[in-house]
């Protein structure tokens, strides 16, 4: 059934080319900024950071807290997120940058990401999947909502339990997980909203609701 959901979503929406970013570090910043906000708000924040040439770890650290918070204001919780961006940028440089981090095994890299203040499971997995191309399935609010409505999960599963369940039901492939998560996000915006828009839903034939 999990495979059929993917096939139907892919047929309906096609390739999503996700995560939209010009660099790996920009993608990581986006993953932090998207916590508790919509992607449209993140795009505004990213645009401001680009306008101020502040999408590198060095530039993030060089900016004052006030400057950074102002630039990312649209993403919400801007003071907290400014601090998190600085924490992440410092950690990133201390570890030796992308190539050094890419040499670390997936489980160890996730543990290292989770040890950073402000990085939770979803953000860590966003970074692992989209920046480091590791085969981890990102579990977000949209994922829970969709599979709960399809009666494939109870909805109360712990993050790692649900992630494990999804990963063992699919081929463990970073490209597949990338596309699947992106399609879920697209579908959640088009149809599987908090108040579902069922008319024209590509999953209508398999959805109990």
Number of strands: 0
Contiguous low-pLDDT stretches (5 residues minimum) are none
Compute the gyration radius: what is it?
18 Å
Query: What percent strand?
Result: under 5%
Principal-axis shape equals: globular
Largest sheet: none
Report, as a whole number of angstroms, the end-to-end distance. 16 Å
Following the backbone from N to C, one meets helices and strands in this order, namely HHHHHHHHHHHH
Number of helices: 12
Structural class: mainly alpha
The level of helicity is 55-70%
Mean pLDDT: 94
Q: Your description of this structure?
A:
With 209 residues, this protein is mainly alpha-helical. It is 60% helix and 0% strand. It is built from 12 helices and no strands. Helix 2 (24-33) packs antiparallel against helix 9 (121-131). The longest helix has 17 residues, at 78-94. The radius of gyration is 18 Å and the shape is globular. It starts with a helix and ends in a 19-residue tail after the last helix. The model has no long low-confidence stretch (mean pLDDT 94).
Structure at a glance:
This protein is mainly alpha-helical and 209 residues long.
Ordered list of secondary-structure elements with their pairings:
Elements: H1 2-13, H2 24-33, H3 39-51, H4 57-62, H5 65-71, H6 78-94, H7 98-102, H8 106-114, H9 121-131, H10 141-149, H11 159-168, H12 174-190
């Amino acid at each position: 059934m999990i495979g059929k959901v993917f096939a139907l979503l892919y047929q309906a929406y096609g390739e999503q080319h996700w995560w939209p970013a010009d660099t790996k570090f920009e993608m990581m910043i986006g993953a932090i900024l998207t916590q508790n906000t919509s992607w449209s708000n993140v795009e505004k924040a990213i645009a401001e950071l680009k306008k101020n040439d502040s999408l590198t770890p060095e530039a993030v650290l060089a900016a004052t807290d006030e400057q950074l918070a102002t630039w990312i204001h649209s993403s919400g919780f801007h003071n907290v997120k400014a601090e998190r961006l600085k924490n992440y940028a410092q950690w990133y440089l201390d570890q030796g940058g992308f190539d050094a981090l890419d040499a670390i095994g997936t489980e160890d890299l996730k543990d290292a990401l989770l040890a950073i203040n402000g990085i939770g499971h979803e953000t860590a997995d966003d970074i692992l999947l989209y920046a480091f191309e590791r085969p981890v399935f990102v579990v977000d609010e949209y994922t829970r909502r969709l599979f709960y409505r399809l009666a494939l999960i109870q909805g109360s599963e712990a993050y790692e339990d649900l992630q494990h369940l999804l990963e063992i039901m699919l081929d463990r492939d970073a490209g597949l997980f990338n596309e699947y998560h992106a399609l879920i996000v697209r579908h959640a915006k088009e149809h599987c909203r908090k108040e579902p828009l069922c008319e024209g839903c590509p999953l209508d034939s398999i959805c109990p609701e």
